[in-house]
Amino acid sequence: GLLSVSVFLNAELTIIQKCRLLFSVETNQELFGAGGWSPMVTDRDPWLQVDLRDQMKVTAVATQGCSISSDWVSRYLLLYSDTGQVWKQYRQEDGGGTFVGNVNSDDVIPNKLSHSMRTRFLRFVPVDWNPSNWLGLRVEVYGCSYKSDVADFDGRSSLLYRFNQKSMSTVKDVITLRFKSRQAEGVLLHGEGQRGDYITLELHRGKLAFYLNLGEFFLFSSSCVAVTVGSLLDDQHWHSVIIERFNKQVNLTVDSHTQHFQTQGEGDSLEVDYELSFGGIPLPGKPGTFLRKNFHGCMENLYYNGINIIDLAKRRKPQIYSGKVTFSCSQPQLVACTFLSSSSSFLSLPVASAIMGGFSIRFQFRTWNPDGLLLSTQLSPEHQRLELLISNSRLLLTLHNFGQQLEASAGHRVNDGLWHSVSLDTRSLQITLTLDNEAASTIEQWEQLEARGSFYFGGCPPTGFQTPTLAFQGCIRLIAINSQPVNLNHIQQGLLGNYNELQFDTCNIRDRCLPNLCEHGGRCWQSWTSFSCDCSGTGYSGATCHKSIYESSCEAYKLIGSSSGFYSIDPDGSGPLGPALVYCNMTEERVWTVLTHNITAPVRVQGSSLQKPHIMMLNYSASAKQLRTIITGSEQCQQEVVYNCRKSRLFNTKDGRPLSWWVDQGGERRSYWGGFLPGVQQCSCSLEENCIDMNYFCNCDADIDTWANDTGVLSYKDHLPMSHIVIGDTNRTGSEAIYRIGPLRCYGDKSIWNAASFYQESSSLLFPTLRAELAFDISFYFKTTANSGVFLEIMGHKDFIRVELSSPSVVTFSFDVGNGPAVLSVKSHLPLNDRQWHYVRAERNVKEASLQVNQLPLRFLDAPADGHRHLRLSGQLFVGGTASQQRGFLGCIRTLTFNGVTFDLEERAKMVPGVSSGCPGYCSSSSSLCHNSGKCIEKSSGYTCDCSQSAFGGPTCKEVSFDRESSMTFTFQEPFSVMQNRSSQASSARRESISRAREDVAFTFITSQSPALLLTVNTFSQQYVAVILTHNGSLQIWYHLQTHRTPDVFSPILSSLADGQIHRIRIHREGKDLYVQVSNGHIKSFMWTCNELSCLLLTEVLLAGSKGFIGCLSSVQFNNVAPLKAALLNRGSSLVTIRGPLMQSNCGALNPMTTTYIIGSSSPQGGRTTTEFLYLLLLICVFPGCSSGVVTAVVFIAVCILAVVTRRLYLRQAHRSNHSIKEKEHPHNVETGNRTELHLQNSVRDNMKEYYI
C-alpha cells in the first residue's frame, strides 16, 4: 500500500506523524505511539512508502511492530527514489541488502546506514515477518536537510567555464560533482591545452572513464589509457564523483569505490587553455557541434577547485556560457520491472489487435545471463509458436512451424548489463527482428501470422507450454505492443495481465564484479545471481583464486616426494606475493633452495677507480619481497663471492676506507666480505689466519703483482642477497680483478616444524587481531590424546571464527559474518586422538567455506546469495584455547598459518605457563623420516612409516612398488564420488557438477612406443579420464565429465615422451582448473573451455588403446589410493581383483637399454592380434553397495570392449591380407626395426605374453 506522510525535520531526527493509508485505515505511526501499518492479508507484495516532502540526507532508520499486536517485520528491504516511481535498493558497504527487523512488536530496532543516501521517497519492503501472525510496522527515519544546485543537460548542450586569463596551470586539482544519467554514454568534463595537456571525464558503457595527461600525447591518441571506475551508472540514480590530483598522483572516487593511479606525461602541472567544458566537448568555431556524445542527465553541486560552477551559471556570471541547460532536474518515466527467478518469473500481457494485421512488439532489456527466454507466444494458424530468447549471449528468434524451426539471430554479448532495444514486427509476410541500431534480421513467411492468447515475457506459467530454456532474469522496460505503451502500474495493481516473481518500479541489477572479489589477478564473470572467478594462469585456485597451487618451500616439495629440479614456490601461500621459480636441490642432509640471478659467468674488471667505479646490478629470479620472505622463513642462507685480484685492493692501506664494496637488498653499503660478521672489514683468510701477508686482513690488500684470492661466503641473513657490487681499484698498470657472484642458497623451512605443546585447558597463546574481512584460510597440524578441545578462536562484536576437535573423530569449523552461525564438520572413520599428526585447513571467502582434514573429502558450505560479506574481528587470536578459558586443547599444534603468514608458536610459548615450545616425539622434527607423503607413526620405542597413502613402499616410503602387472580392478571401500567430490552440506543445486571436484593423479613410466594408453579412470556414469601418448609421443589428457558433451582434451607437452627415459606425471584438478607437471618441468594450467581440442573424436583414444603400452609403469596414485601397490601387497583383499601374472621390480633404477620389461606385445605388422591386445583399465566404483556382482559386471564390460576392438583389428588384418606374403618373406627386418625402436632384448621378446594393466 502507499502511505502519505507529513514530517517534522531537525538536524538529527525525522519524526513521522499523522499517517493516512490510502485504503482508509487511520493510524499514528510514530514509534511508541498507538497503531502502526499493517496491510490487508489479501495484498500482493505489500510495501510501505514514505514521502519526506523534499530531498533529505538519510543516515539511519528504525522499526517497531504494531502496538498491542503480534504483527512485526523481521527482515525488510529498503528502497529509495527521487520521484517515487523509479526505485533503487539500498545496499550496505558489504553488499548486503536485507535489514534486520523485529522479533516482537515492542522493541525498537535501529539500523545505521553504512553510507548516507540523499532521497525524498523511502520504501520499506517486508521480506519476513511473524510466522504465526502477520506483518506490521512503525518506522522512524533519521537524517538532515539537503540543499543542492542542479543543472539539467538535454544531450545537446554544455556549460563552458572560461578562465580570466588565456590558460590555467595547476599542480593541485579537486573536482567534485554528483550526476544521474539516462544514457550509458556522455562527456561530463573536458579541458585541453596547446602543449598536449588534457583532462576528460566521460561515461562509457555505463562506466566512468577518466583521461588525464600532463604534456605528452595528443588528444585521444591510441596511447591514451583510461582509468575506469564504477558500473551501471546509467540507472537514473545519483552518483558522486571526487577527483583529487597532486602532481602526478590521482585519486578517482565514484560512490564508495576509489582508484589511485599515477598519470602519464612529463610534467607535474595541468595546463588548460581558455575554458573547461561540462556536459560535452564543443568543436572550436562550430557552435552546437561536439566531438563526443554529450551528457544527457542531471548534475548537482559541481565544484572545480572550490568554484561552484552551477551557481555561477544560475547567476549568469560572465565567465559561464551555457547552451540549453536548465536548473531543475526533469524526471523521465522510464519505469522498469525485474524478473527475479530463472524458473518461475513471467509477465503475461493480452494480445492487442492490430489495424494492419500481424503484431509488433518493442521493449528494452538488460541482463548478465547468457541464456534465457525473453518472449514467447502462440500463433495463428495453430501449431505454431514464436520464441525470442538469449542463447549463448546472442539474441535468437525461433519460429516453430509444424515440427520445423526457422531462426534469425542478432547481436553478440547482449548479456553485458547494458540496456538493449528490441523490435519485433510480423505485419508483413516476414518476421523482422531489430536489435539496437543494427541491421534487421528476417524470417520469410508465406502467410500472415497472428498472435493468439497472450504474450509471455520471461518464462511461462505452469499451465502454459513448456520450454527447456531458462526463464529470463533481468530487467525490462518501455514495453509497447502494436505501438501502444504498456503501463506497468496497471499490471501491479491487477488491472492488466498477470505476473509472477516480478519486482516493479526498479531494475534490481547488480554488478557483482565491482569490486572484483577474485584474488591474485583472477578474472570475474557474473550471472544475475552470482559470480565466478577464472583463475587460469594465476597460480591460484578455489572459488575466489585464494589458494596457491604451489608448495610454500622446497622442504614442502621434498615431503611430498619430489626430487631435485626447478619448482615454483609460493613463500606466503595465499598472501599477496606470487610464486617464484627456484631450483630445489634435494640432498640427503638438507634441502637447498637456490635462487639465481642474471650474472652467472666470471666478470673481469679493469680501469675502475673510486671516481669511476665498476658497478654491477644483480637481478634475481624473485622479487625483493619474495626474497625477503624466503630468507626470513629459512633456517640459514648463504651466498658465495669468488674474488680474484692482482694489484687490486679491497681496503685503503692508509685509512682503512673501502675501495670496493657490495650493497645488500635493503640498499645499504657493506664492506665486510665472506666469513665475517657485519661491521668487520676483513676477509675469510683473516679468520682462518692464512692471509698472504699477516699485516693485512685480506689477501688482496697485500697489493702484490700476482693473483690472490679472497673468496668467501656471505651468511648474515638480514643483509642477503647481494644486489650490487662496486669495484674501485683496478686503474693502475697491471691491476685487475675477476669476480663471480654465486646464487642465493637457503635451507630449512622454519615454519614446518614450528610447534607448541599445550598441557592445561586454561592456557592459550595470544596473537594480535587478524584482518580477514573478505577471505581467509587457516591451516595447521595437530596431534592429541584428548577427546575434544578448541584449536583456535577469534572474536569480534558479533562475528567470530572457531576451529575445534568436537569429538575424537570430528573436526568442526564454525564462524559468523553477520548471517548467523555457520558450521562445517568433517568426520573421520578413524579416531583423530591417536597421538599422530593430522592436517586441518579451513577457508572462508565470499562464495563459500570449506574444511579439509587429512586426505578426507572436503566439505563445502555456500555463502548466502545476498548476505553479509565482511567478517569483522576485533579480539585477539586465541591458539589452543578460548577467551573463556574453557574447552582448551591438550596436545601439540604445529605449522599454524593464517593467509600465508606463519605464527611463531615456539617463541610465544616461552612466555605462557602451561605451554611449551616444540612437541616431543620422533615425528616432530624436519628430518623427513618418511618420504613421498608417507605418514610418520609414533611408537613407544621409535617410529614407523605408514605408506598406505603413498604410491611408494619400503621402510621409509622410498621404494617403487612395481614395474609391470596384468589386469587389475580396484573397488573403493567408501561410497564417495571420485569425479565429484561434493559435500552434503553444499546445498546449492545450481552449482556445476565439476566446480568442486578434485583429483590428484601421479605415476611414472618408461616407454619407446607411441601411441599408447597410459591410464584410464572410469565411473559408472560414463565419465572418464584418459592419459595417452599420441602418434608423435606427445602427452594428452582426456576428460569426459559431462556426458552430453564431447571430451575436453589438454596437451601439456608437445615433445615426445616415448624416448625410453623415465617420466613422472603429476595431474591435479580442482573445479574447472587443471594443473599438469611432467617430470620436473614447470606446472602448466588449463581451464575447461569448448575449443578445437574438445571436438576431437574418441578414435584417438581407441587407437592408443588398441596399440597398448610397451614399457614400465610404476608409482601410480589416484587421490589417496595407490591401486597398483594395493594389488601387490594385498593380494587377498576383496577390493582388488587380479587377472594374470603381477610382478614387482624397480624399473626406474634399471638401464632401459638392457633390462626394460615389456607390457604388451607387437605383431610384425605393427598392429595387435587377439592375444596381443593391451589395455590399461582402472575401474572405480563410485556408488553405495558396490559388491562382487558389480565387479563382475565391470569385468564383463571390459571384455565387451576388448571384443569390439578385436573385431576392428581383425577387419584391419583382413584388409592387409594382400600384403601378408611379402611381409612374411622379410620378417627378420621388421623384427630388427621394432627391436631397435623399443630397445628390447631378444630374451624378453621371446617371452612376451598378453597383459591387462
From TrEMBL:
Domain EGF-like residue range list: 509-546, 920-958
Transmembrane listed as a keyword: yes
Laminin G domain: residues covered: 150-329, 336-507, 754-919, 975-1147
Bilayer-spanning residue ranges: 1173-1206
Cysteine disulfide links: 892-919
Sequence ranges assigned to domain F5/8 type C in this UniProt record: 1-144
SUPFAM superfamilies xref list: Concanavalin A-like lectins/glucanases, EGF/Laminin, Fibrinogen C-terminal domain-like, Galactose-binding domain-like
Domain Fibrinogen C-terminal as annotated: residue spans: 545-597
SMART domains: EGF, FA58C, LamG
Compartment(s) of residence: Membrane
Keywords: Disulfide bond, EGF-like domain, Membrane, Repeat, Signal, Transmembrane, Transmembrane helix
GO cellular component: a single term: membrane
Keyword Signal belongs to the record: yes
Membrane protein topology class: Single-pass type I membrane protein
Domain of life: Eukaryota
Protein family (similarity comment): Belongs to the neurexin family.
Protein name: Contactin associated protein-like 5a
